[in-house]
């Protein structure tokens, strides 16, 4: 009986120690989000807003550097988390990128990978005091095109062709929300329409295991398990837009196949 009690106490201590580590890593990440921005990056954002002509481009680059540092912090503080990124992803330019969605870390990871990037952001974030200003200046698109967001959406769509031709990427999570079971949900057709309208290639990226580090519904990072986060190119769709333009349904089927749906 005494041995069983001792074993239970030992297990409880190990569990408490592991939870403390999770709490500490999460705290360090939040410290970077708050004080890293205030002490270091806020001045660069302010200078870009006041003195740079291509404000949008510089804001996108700053976003990329900020989140790249964040993932460096994760790798240092949570060494059991290994990240494997396909080297060819950094070469993607002037494309529409679609990707599966597992965790809140997914958009941060893609922003870190691309120096010139746009994406669709939930409309409520545009109303936030500081973050809302940053995503506006970065040229990100609101998820809603109604009411106060209509003019913003029209402006971004009018300049999307020039942006893509200049080397910029637009990445979209066509499911619109995080998958809880890994299955591919209903795909929003906006990404396919933009790619077809501007005759751009579609890259399909596959993200794996970000949900094991930051599980949906939980606040603390799960740093205790050995985990490999990966981003790979599942497919590169380059249709013959001039001679045999694909339908939206054709593009959707190919994306679903690339993401692993039978």
| Helical residues, percent | 40-55%
Largest sheet: 7 strands, mixed
Please indicate the percent range of residues in DSSP E strands (runs of 2 or more).
5-15%
Q: How many β-strand stretches?
A: 7
Sequence of strands across the biggest β-sheet = 1-7-6-2-5-3-4
Architecture overview:
With 262 residues, this protein is an alpha/beta fold. It has a single domain, classed as Glycerol-3-phosphate (1)-acyltransferase, CATH 3.40.1130. It is built from 8 helices and 7 strands, in the order ααββαβαβαβαβαβα. The chain has a 7-stranded mixed sheet, with helices on both faces. Helix 4 links the parallel strand 3 and strand 4. Helix 1 packs antiparallel against helix 2. The radius of gyration is 21 Å and the shape is globular.
């Amino acid at each position: 009986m005494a041995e069983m009690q001792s074993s239970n106490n030992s297990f409880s201590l190990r569990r408490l120690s592991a939870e403390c580590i999770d709490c500490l890593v999460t705290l360090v990440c939040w410290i970077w989000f708050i004080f890293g921005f205030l002490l270091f990056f806020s001045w660069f954002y302010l200078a870009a807003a006041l003195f740079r002509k291509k404000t949008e481009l510089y804001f996108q680059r700053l976003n990329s550097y900020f989140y790249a540092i964040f993932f460096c912090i994760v790798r240092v503080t949570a060494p059991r988390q290994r990240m494997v990124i396909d080297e060819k992803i950094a070469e993607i330019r002037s494309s529409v990128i679609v990707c599966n969605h597992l965790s809140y870390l997914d958009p941060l990871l893609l922003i870190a990978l691309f120096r010139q990037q746009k994406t669709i952001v939930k409309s409520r974030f545009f109303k936030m005091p500081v973050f809302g200003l940053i995503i506006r200046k970065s040229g990100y698109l609101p998820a809603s095109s109604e009411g106060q967001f209509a003019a913003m959406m029209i402006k971004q769509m009018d300049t999307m062709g020039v942006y893509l031709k200049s080397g910029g990427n637009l990445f979209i999570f066509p499911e619109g929300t995080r998958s809880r079971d890994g299955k591919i949900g209903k795909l929003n057709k906006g990404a396919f329409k933009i790619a077809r309208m501007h005759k751009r290639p579609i890259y399909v990226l596959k993200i794996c295991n970000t949900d094991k580090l930051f599980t949906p519904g939980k606040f603390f990072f799960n740093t205790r398990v050995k985990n490999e986060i990966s981003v790979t190119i599942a497919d590169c769709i380059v249709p013959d837009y001039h001679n045999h333009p694909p339908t939206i349904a054709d593009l959707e089927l190919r994306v679903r196949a690339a993401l692993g749906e039978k």
